[in-house]
Amino acid sequence: MKVEIWSDVMCPFCYIGKRRFEEALAGLDGKDQIEIEWKSFQLNPDLKTNPNISINQYLADIKGWTLDHAEQMNNHVTQMAAQAGLTYDFSKSVVANSFNAHRLAHLAKKHGLGDAAEEALFRAYFTEGRNIDDNQTLIELGTAIGLNADEIKLTLETDSYADDVKHDIAEAQYLGVRGVPFFVMNRKYAVSGAQEVAVFKDTLTKAFAGWQQENPKAAFDIIEGESCSPDGDCE
């Protein structure tokens, strides 16, 4: 069963939602039959990368908040993240456009490393305070999960996977996605936001049960004969 997850690397609730979803999935019978596909979404596609401004000041400016209020909001999110086992350090976060990070994620998905890329990018942004719009940073993150440095460099120096990112965003708009994280399960159930683990678990269970009914395992009448088993026994 496929689970599609729309998210943005700079969305704090997306990382929290990832952890809660993973906890729910870990307890699902049949979890080995779940295919996860990460999809791109940009909360602020026009954002200009600016390492010289704090994330608190950026939020205060775009939302019309006081600096103190922005700090309080991020402190609250930091506490939520800690409850999910994550360490956020907004004092180090770099204000950065996420488009190139999404392109790296699509390259990783091509090589079966989509989830590893998302994890690395989230950690880089929220915990390590790295600039996710810096080519060298993205090369380092990509090679750390097993991607080829030259392929990453070529991707970043061209417009590779730009259309894939735009397609994901357009698809989200078509589906009526208004915010992220947004989890679509078997294209029949959806969970919006970093819901509690119980919500993910309940929705996963229902979606998977429906998927199993639609995709029953084949039952065979087996005529036994001489054969070899994976443990090396031949008889």
From TrEMBL:
Gene Ontology molecular function: oxidoreductase activity
Q: Which domain of life is it from?
A: Bacteria
Q: What are the DSBA-like thioredoxin domain coordinates in residue numbering?
A: 3-204
Recorded hits in InterPro entries, A to Z, give: DSBA-like_thioredoxin_dom, Thioredoxin-like_sf
Q: What is this protein called?
A: DsbA family oxidoreductase
